[in-house]
Amino acid sequence: MSTQDSRSILFTHTRPQEGFRLLELTPELEALLTSKDAPALELKSPSTALAQAVVDPTAHDYVNLCTPTQTYRIRQVQSSNSLHILRPSRGEISQADIKVVEDEAGESGALNLPDEAVTALAKCSSTLELHIPPGGFSAVPFLEKSLRLYDRRSDDDGDIAMGGSADSTGPLGSKEMRTARENLCQDIPVSTAQCEQGWMELCAFVDGAEEMACWRPSARSRLAVWKRLVEGAVLQNIDLEKQFLVGDLWKSVLDDDEEMEPPFPRALLEAVVRRICIADERPPLTDDIKWASFDKLECTKWVGETYLAANAPTTSSAIGRSDFLHAWKDCLPETWRGEAALSKLPNGCYNSPDPTTIYFVEPAQRQPTNKTASAPATAAKNKNTRNWHELLKGRR
Amino acid sequence: MPSIKLHPHCSTPVKATATDTTPNNPLPALLQTPSGLALLELQGTINVPSGNEEEDDIDYSSSTDNPASTFETPIGKLMFPDYSVHNPDDTKWMKRAYMYVGRYQRMTGEVKKLPRPIAVLQKRQASEGEELEVVEIVRYKIFFKSRPEPVTNV
């Protein structure tokens, strides 16, 4: 006889056990998964080649969980406790076995009903936890390894190497470009939005002139595109600060002589325009960019950084500061010249071996700004206290 | 390496496969989920005799033809002594839960809200490649952190 009035629930163990994994959700992920049109998520890891090229110092093998916009690193956390997954029993219990737990089951009437039972279906000794490392995830290092470098100078006299590029602007539809981009991003272990962000930052483009390939233009090529488009805009009287048709800008960079090959693929011009146009007006990467306008400040900044990357990429190739400022100004439309100043350059993008010279610092080598430097500390603080390995590591 | 899809919903909801036989969920309402899945955490583990030892006991004539055949081994009982169906909003009952192991041992535990909800994932059945799906999102667990104590009053 039970001394308790409350119901007791028979607890059983099911064989065969089922396979489940437990994934601890962040609040954002919970909201996403419980929303009405919850998207499918992806578990992504880099291709073998990419994993070797872009080494993550914190992990050898890893899997990232990607929502459409966000990336999380998955960490498997072992527990000495066992987590069992229960389900109401379907009543496949041998009545004879119930004796183990209740000898008077029939009489008390409290227990011998199969619908008063739960059963352990599965056991998990680890859970999957998610975290975002300080500094977050970026597709840029992966894209830099997987995109081909485009480094053809259109302002060179000789060798405009786009063989057969007369039709390079025509044959690739935006659909094919999209497919090529998406195929490439499959192997990049970050979310689609972050892949697209990186793609856009690098001015990456798809070109099918020789063979279908995804390219990232060198700083030199990007600068050449910029110079050419400024020339074209001046000649055709296009005000870059007001909305203009990207098609008009393309026409303006072409030579009058229709027979001449374009100086560079149209997709490259569009990629550069997309990179430097006003962010609010930037269409999603899946859409063609038809209209654009430039912000004087942002553009100036980008041009300065690109010039430096093209002309003084390392310490040994450092150039004079005043030469740099002059050249920078020369790259800008006449009315923007006043905007060029060292203080306008993005944080940490340059270094000076001595007071008169300057050279470019690769984004990966830049000193973390204050914001990212303090991030680990706050991350540690926010860390839930259950993982004592992490806690002790922090104290050391 | 190809990416693996993780679907937000179950392709074959547990309920749909067993519409006729969906058992009543005897757990307190707070622990009930649409799929019926719940979490129980134990310090230690449940040891059940391994399959090999039990093979002799199984009646093969009735079970081998049906690959889905499962059987349950009774372990004990779960009790939520302070829970009342008439007052489901009062959560004081969560402070106490019992698990009897066999007839003479009892563990005392509690029902806890998980600091972060846990998604229960499963391989998606009848999918070509490897695909996963979220079967359920669980927000509470039944938690027994102490060892079993002997009891005689069952």
TrEMBL record, chain A:
Pfam families: Dcc1 (PF09724). One of its GO terms (biological process) is maintenance of mitotic sister chromatid cohesion. Keywords: DNA replication. GO terms for cellular component: chromatin; chromosome, centromeric region; Ctf18 RFC-like complex. The keyword DNA damage does not apply. It comes from the Eukaryota. Belongs to the DCC1 family. PANTHER family: SISTER CHROMATID COHESION PROTEIN DCC1, SISTER CHROMATID COHESION PROTEIN DCC1-RELATED. This is Sister chromatid cohesion protein Dcc1. It comes from Penicillium fimorum.
From TrEMBL, chain B:
It is found in: Nucleus. One of its GO terms (biological process) is DNA replication. The keyword Cell cycle applies. It comes from the Eukaryota. Keywords: Cell cycle, DNA replication, DNA-binding, Nucleus. Belongs to the CTF8 family. Its main location: nucleus. Residues 1-25 are annotated as: Disordered. One of its GO terms (molecular function) is DNA binding. This is Chromosome transmission fidelity protein 8. GO terms for cellular component: Ctf18 RFC-like complex.
